[in-house]
Specification:
By secondary structure, the protein is mostly beta strands. It has three domains: 98 residues, no CATH class; 79 residues, Ubiquitin-like (UB roll), CATH 3.10.20; 60 residues, no CATH class. It contains one helix and 22 strands. Strands 14, 15, 16, 17 and 18 form a five-stranded mixed β-sheet that branches. A hairpin with a 4-residue loop joins strand 20 and strand 21.
């Protein structure tokens, strides 16, 4: 906040003194002094002329108008201040004094906004179907990231992991009225190793012989280990292929019962 503005001035008060009673002559007693009476006058010391003006008859002071200093992120309730003061008579001493001339300018913190974004480093795009979180507050107020953290927790449950999260230390709203503060949470898709059994069958069939050998069938199990994207629930690099591979080799053995007649 700006420093308190204090102006101290000197006012020269010219008055008449009764040399018999040794008291000041007040305006209410002027008739007793007939033509000897002269009214009081007030003038400001030369060095203080830029700070205040004075009513030469009443002594009322009007201080020079002070423009309220601008403070980024705050709005004052008064744009300018001009204090006034009057000369007050002390009835016991007959002296005039000035009371304090005081004003208070109250600043109100401006509305500020924080925007939290969520970026998916796996896709290089904003997190799908996730809108930005807006947090409202005022200049120098503490940012409450609870709503944004709730979103982060939800995304983690949906299969993401956090690369760079929200600030852990207290953060205050800034004083930039025309610019929103921005924070970005970066995440990646969780990837897990999964294993599935694949069945493969090899079949050899014999034909043409009598009796024909029995069909040869071999069935094996292959353990397929792959990576799964926990966000999209798809394989990391390729779509899942058929789980059962069937390999059928058919070897047909034909025995010719009739020999060809050789060429003569």
């Amino acid at each position: 906040m700006p420093a308190t503005n204090v102006a101290t001035v000197t006012v020269n008060h010219t008055y008449q003194m009764d040399k018999v009673t040794n008291t000041r002559i007040q305006e209410t007693a002027k008739d007793a002094y007939v033509t000897d009476y002269q009214p009081d006058t007030y003038t400001v010391a030369t060095d203080d002329a830029a700070k205040v003006t004075v009513n030469e008859t009443t002594g009322a002071l009007t201080y020079t108008t002070i423009e309220t200093p601008a403070v980024a992120g705050y709005t004052p309730d008064k744009m300018t201040v001009s204090n006034t003061a009057t000369a007050v008579l002390n009835t016991e001493t007959g002296e005039y004094i000035y009371g304090p001339a005081e004003s208070t300018v109250t600043y109100t913190a401006d509305v500020q906004k924080v925007v939290v974004k969520f970026n998916d480093l796996t896709t290089g795009q904003p997190v799908a179907k996730q809108t930005d979180v807006t947090i409202d507050g005022v200049t120098d107020g503490t940012v409450d990231f609870k709503t944004a953290q709730d979103v982060v927790d939800k995304l983690v449950k949906a299969g993401y992991y956090v690369v760079a999260g929200l600030p852990t230390d207290p953060v205050l709203f800034d004083n930039k009225d025309k610019e929103d503060q921005s924070f970005t949470v970066t995440l990646r898709h969780q990837v897990t190793n999964e294993t599935e059994p694949l069945t493969a069958t090899s079949t050899v069939t014999y034909e043409g012989a009598n009796p024909a050998p029995a069909t040869n069938v071999v069935t094996v199990t292959v353990n397929h280990t792959y990576q799964m994207d926990k966000v999209t629930t798809r394989e990391f690099k390729k779509r899942r292929r058929m789980r059962t591979l069937r390999i059928t080799n058919r070897i047909r053995t034909r025995l010719r019962r009739t020999m060809r007649q050789r060429l003569q």
